[in-house]
Amino acid sequence: MGLLARSRPETLAALWRDFTCNRAGLEEAAITWLRKPETGTVMVRGRAGAVGEAFNLGEMTVTRASLRLPCGAVGHAYVQGRDREKARIAALVDALMAGPHADHARKAILAPLATIETEARTARASRAAATQVDFFTMVRGE
Amino acid sequence: MYVAVKGGERAIAAAHGWLDEERRGDPAIPELGTDQIRTQMTLAVDRVMAEGSLYDPDLAALALKQARGDAIEAIFLIRAYRTTLPRFGASIPIATGAMACERRISAIFKDAPGGQVLGPTFDYTHRLLDFALMAGGEAPSSAPQSEPRDAAKPHVTEILAREDLIQAESEHDEVDTPPDLTRAPLSLPASRALRLQALARGDEGFLLSLAYSTQRGYGRNHPFVGELRVGTVAVEMEIPELGFAVEIGEIVVSECESVNQFTGSKTQPAQFTRGYGLVFGRGERKAISMALVDRALRWKELGEENTGAPAQDEEFVLAHADNIQASGFLEHIKLPHYVDFQAELELIRKLRSEALAHLGADA
Q1: Best CA proximity match to B103, nearest among B122, B117, B87
Q2: How many structural domains does chain B have?
């Protein structure tokens, strides 16, 4: 769920297109909306002094959706941002993870998302590591 | 005698038409895309998210474009948009100790576990204009990279807390829902949770000035930047449909923990005290300011003297920190006040005629 929630909408949409074009009928399957994609906010909380009492930091945009596949599997999505299509795909993937398509969905969607994310994180972490200070001490009077 | 006037619709429509044209600027120059603003004016975007109190970089970029770059106007647009959205719930408090830091420095411990990571900072630059940016065209050489170090970066205050050298933060019960300024008007005296919310969405300039005033002696509390960290944290929320918490996204935040001078008594050994700053996006100047002001506002619970300094005055600080409230009240005085002023005119004429009549009588 985290991978789907953090993804950029255009990336997820492209992966979903590739996934469904090999599986005719998946996209057209009659899904039942339990909750149509809806955009709202979630209040993000922090803690005083990072460990103390909780306080309200500010909100973030979130889109949610819930649906049921013809096979009966139910999928839910709460994803960052305002993209309804992203929420729809995330809920579909969530539902698929409970059925026979789980392995395919994992390979075709979740794994590539994880790779993209790891690459992006490593790129930033490597740059951060290069800015880590290595102190040296000058010895006087030897 | 004042006669009510209607009209102005045509002038207003024309003004807005011209505003659109001015925003676009010279059509011979390519239009600025919101994706360009989001990825190249990142600190402006972050400020709009922080003070707009809504984390959404795409929306903040749009607001900046629409507002012609005016931060407060953009923040206003974001605040207005926010009110149109339903609230799904609240997150589990973010765990900043697990932050993927792009910057993390401590001004008190050289060898803080996890190290000092400078990140993409303006510090140590010479503040000389780089005319190469104006000439354009040249891609920057790629930044140096090293093998990422996985060392954990515990909060520096934890080190002091281990020896009991710093005040413990009170851990409140989870069932307590923190007060929310967006749902209930500010009530005084304010809890620390309410103060922190107000400061987190408060105006950076206002908080900077107040924090500076404490450094100059107006409510002095001698701060050290115990730690400053900027990076990405996961946001998790309990999903009612699922019955457990899942990650719903990630955000960039800046956090500052200040370590300040002591509290203590005959029965209680001396301890450092602390202030806290946390803001959306990359806003370390504001995070530090917030920590200093938070600390100044804690004078009562720490048994300090109220020196009458503005930064210690909770009502003054909290009532004036919000730039949308402030600009709303300030800017309304430019709207027609013809009737009010007519009354003032009548009054001053009357006062003057009475005074002049007196003077005439004396002569």
Answers
A1: B117
A2: 2
